[in-house]
Write a structure and sequence with these properties.
It is a single chain. Strand 5 and strand 6 form a beta hairpin. Helices cover 19% and strands 34% of the residues. Helix 2 packs across helix 3. The N and C termini lie far apart (41 Å). The longest helix is centred in the first third of the chain and has 12 residues. By secondary structure, the protein is α+β, with helices and mostly antiparallel strands. Strands 1, 2, 3, 7, 11 and 13 form a 6-stranded antiparallel sheet that branches. The chain has a 5-stranded antiparallel sheet with strand order 9-4-12-8-10. A two-stranded antiparallel ribbon has the order 5-6. The protein has 2 domains: 39 residues; 194 residues. It has 6 helices and 13 strands.
Amino acid sequence: MITLVNGSDLERHARDLARNTPSDKDVENVRYLLRTLLPLELADLVIEYAEYWPCLHSESPFKIRLEAKTALGLKAAACYLLSLPVPDVPTRKGLQILQVRRIEINLRSHDQGWAPHPGPWSWFEATIIQDMGESKPKWFNSALNCPADLWLENGEGFHHLFAADNLRWHIASNEIANKTTQHHSVVWTRQETDGPRDEKSPKGREGFGHELVRALKPGDRVAIIALAEQLGWENHVESGSIDIYYSV
């Protein structure tokens, strides 16, 4: 069960001007101009080096409280935020193949402020929601507008999330026994990174964010899942956003 702490209207829109990110058309125009001055390969290298990429921005201002004690099996889970879908890029010759280049996730949250036992058991994961028509999760339509409890519809969404064939990636965990709001900032690219890895972690694949970036296809969305597990644990989420950068 999730508790909605405030009921602000959810704003989901691309902030191209405010965020100074180009549109698909902007990139094509710059590429055309560069090709009048440089060889084709160099023009593309300039765009690549400058990271002049369009961006899909999605955010949620909702404050929610997840309490493990109110959920079946003491496992509370909610889709806190759904990204915009990765677009198809039309060209004169059909559809141009695009690549997702980078994902930036920002979350503000904290746990219950005390530790009933070793943790942390208050954390976030990411998973891919594919464009599969009517076979989307039951909570999908609700999550387009506000955080959605995965235990709705007899827990179908929860069981789908933790199915053996569904990949989940660890984003961040809240500090243990700390009521101070923390800012979790995560950047994933197509490149593997050094650092701790745990592909069998119960909190999602840790250190493998590059897999998610490489796996995204047109029509796919990224779901940010907030979780709290075991008696006494809570996840207090204050806001969140996701930016998906792609090259065209």
